Amino acid sequence: MGDDDLLRRLPADPAYPTHHAVGIRTVLPADAVDVVLVTSRLAPLWRRWRAHILAEARRIGRSVRGPLLEAGAAPG
């Protein structure tokens, strides 16, 4: 099951829209969300693009969390 399929399964609530994107720059404005979750699905991109992914996550979110951010995490 892909990410888009999982998002479609979430309850629709206009007060809490969901976004799915992989890219260096998203369409979201600065501080648009409370939490950005960097999932393990980004592990293949993490070594090369880590700094860029984190910069964008920090730009759009007040908090950035995820398994790739844990100390000692060594993504594939």
TrEMBL record:
The lineage of its organism: Bacteria, Bacillati, Actinomycetota, Actinomycetes, Micromonosporales. It comes from Micromonospora olivasterospora. This is Uncharacterized protein.
